[in-house]
Amino acid sequence: SQQGEEDPQALSIQEGENATMNCSYKTSINNLQWYRQNSGRGLVHLILIRSNEREKHSGRLRVTLDTSKKSSSLLITASRAADTASYFCATDAETGNQFYFGTGTSLTVIP
Amino acid sequence: ETGVTQSPTHLIKTRGQQVTLRCSSQSGHNTVSWYQQALGQGPQFIFQYYREEENGRGNFPPRFSGLQFPNYSSELNVNALELDDSALYLCASSLPNPGIHEQFFGPGTRLTVL
Questions:
Q1: CA–CA separation, A88 vs B90, rounded Å?
Q2: Which of A2, A99, A106 to mutate to test the interface with B (most CBs of B within 10 A)?
Q3: Cα A74 from Cα A57, distance rounded (Å)
């Protein structure tokens, strides 16, 4: 089974609005990453947050991590039509060389 | 675009056949990971190769096997194909330990098993 689950499964917003998606995971982690995927293509890395960090920013992206709740959120501010994609969180297992993706949130930004 | 390439782009096989998928890693990366992504799902980790050795494996049966070559390119082999093997297969290259390093993904190979 996959490590993470994203919520909501699908999100539709107007251009210029903010988009928030959440990720929950099951076991202790070292780091959590967010990736983006356009239309069944390869994934693109967005941001990495370490288990000892609580918040991180990169451009219009803001990621938070709450290890006590085993959850993370990705906020995209001032969304654009080009942000339309699926977004996945991914975690590494604290032990062993394994890497887990969540189920993904499909974001549609309407121009 | 990343420097990771995969071949072929699309492939159609029948149940019971064998398939080999190929991946060329980005320059400077010695770690390759393979993922299976079913339609509408997130990628599932198959295994990881580091310096030509398997260095981590997900919950996939032994009929999923791989190789990594001295130039760090990699192959994924699947024997005795089943209908449920139909998926997008993604490879990603990175520096060692993809948990702490960005992974660079190829465009994927879409496998259809009939």
A1: 14
A2: A99
A3: 10
Cα separations (Å) of A109 from A16, A19, A85, B41? 9, 9, 9, 20
Q: What is the pLDDT of residues B43-90, one digit of tens each?
A: 999 999 998 999 889 999 999 999 999 999 999 999 999 999 999 999
Residue B84, helix vs strand vs coil: helix
Q: Would the CB atoms of B99 and A99 count as touching at under 8 Å? A: yes
Q: What residues in chain A have per-residue pLDDT under 50?
A: 1
What is the distance in angstroms between the Cα of B35 and the nearest Cα belonging to chain A? 10
Res B47: pLDDT = 93
Cβ A101 vs Cβ A4: under 8 Å: yes
Per-residue confidence (pLDDT) for residue A1, from 0 to 100: 47
- Asked if B105 has any chain A CB less than 8 Å from its own CB, the reply is yes
